Amino acid sequence: MAGTGALIAPAQALAATPVDFATHCVPPPIAGIPPIDGTTTAQITVDKAAPKVGDTVTVTYTVTKPAASNPVDLALPADIMTPTGKVTLGGAQSGDLAVAGPKKNDPVPGKGAFPPFSMTGTFTVTAPGAITLSPGDYNIHTSYIMELDTPCTVTNPPAPVSETVTATGGGQTNQRAVQLGTASGKPGATVTVTGSKFTAGATVTVAGRAGAAETADKATVTADAQGAFSTTLTVNDKATSGIVAYEGASWSDDKGAGPAAYSVVDDTPAPPNSQKLNSSVKAGTLSMTQAGDAVSMDAVDFGKGGFSRGSLQTVTVQDFRGGPAGWSLTGKVTDFTGPGGAKIDASKLGWTPVCATKAGSPSTCAAGSPGPVGGAGATLATTPNAALTGGEFTVDARVSLNVPAFTAPGAYSGVLTLTLA
């Protein structure tokens, strides 16, 4: 039999669609100008296009062209804008998702257009099926000389769908959910937190989050007979960027909800003769690249059969999300087809995975178990959930195709599809 090969095909996510929608914006009263009825251009993106029930999906709402502009003649310096908003879920799962962005912007000239900005938030998938995501209302808060808000609402809600994720069934579903009365506030402000689907009568801890770590902002509340609660949380820690709720002594994925995005608007004046320096760390994405898309494997002899061996093209995984979730890289293969319709069953392909972690990465990857790949698939590598995850990893595998004796001579090929989630 001639040399065999396998094509490596990475799983692809559906591309998000930019959408335009009519928006009604109300400038601050000090500006002395009437409301603005204009058009907003925005786009919704997600880190998981095909999540399972129970997965947490990170959503990014990017306003590429706001309907509003700087309402005053005074030029605004960089990094004084704090955007907040919401994303509307529809289809298999409904509700509003709070999103918030960092205080980061380019300088804005007097009466000039506001620059683009992004806001992020998360939601837990509670039902299988297609879930649509549409951009919703947003607010632009500016902190310069005085605190000003420019709220913008969708004129004809909901806005057009920008992204759709297709959820599949998972294991036991955690349907706990948490929502905030507002997505931002000054240090010391209180925010109303409501929860649903918690255990009836359970003591629930409501806490602030800074990335994967909890802040000192905490409150406790008892869920009612329907598993719902409503309480207020005073947010003092300027690092708080999200709010979670959970049952038990500490956070767990199966008894918690959130984080719901929250942004602290730090309006503390700088001391005389000083300058306040503001920075932020922007969360990235989970992605992979591969060194090639074809694998050459050894030829075996007709009549004898045996193992046709090769090595996968190296896969590099970058996890720059900065959250508590790990990842898994899985693969499944088609039957190997040859001349005249001849084939070698997918179950005949096996692998021995290996993976390496780049120094300094918070997570450590673990190689999957040696064994068959087949059409059902197998795990190539994983990293676990933890308080803080992330890093860079390289993943390889030795592959071997067990070719039966007297398999028809010729070239055979199958397609191995890798999925990172």
Would you summarize the structure shown here?
The chain is built from no helices and 32 strands.
Give a description of the structure:
- It is a single chain.
- This protein has 421 residues and is mainly β.
- The chain folds into 3 domains: 15-172, Immunoglobulin-like (Sandwich); 174-276, Immunoglobulin-like, CATH 2.60.40.230; 284-420, Immunoglobulin-like, CATH 2.60.40.
- The chain has no helices and 32 strands.
- Strands 2, 3, 4, 5, 6, 7, 8, 9 and 10 form a 9-stranded antiparallel sheet that branches. A 6-stranded mixed sheet has the order 21-1-32-24-30-28, with no helix packed on it. Strands 20, 22, 23, 27, 29 and 31 form a 6-stranded antiparallel sheet that branches.
- A hairpin with a 5-residue loop joins strand 25 and strand 26.
- It starts with a strand and ends with a strand.
Second CATH tier, the architecture of the largest domain: Sandwich
- β content, as a range? over 45%
| CA-based gyration radius | 26 Å
Mean pLDDT: 86
CATH class of the largest domain, please? Mainly Beta
Q: Given the helix and strand composition, which structural class is it?
A: mainly beta
Major sheet: 9 strands, antiparallel
Assign an overall shape. Answer: elongated
Number of domains: 3
Span from first to last CA? 37 Å
Structure summary, number of beta strands: 32
Helix content: under 10%
Please mark out the parts with pLDDT under 50 across 5 or more consecutive residues, or reply none: 11-15
Fill in the CATH topology of the largest domain: Immunoglobulin-like
Oligomeric state of the chains? Answer: single chain
- The helix count comes to 0
Protein name: Beta-xylosidase
Signal peptide: 1-15
Keywords: Signal
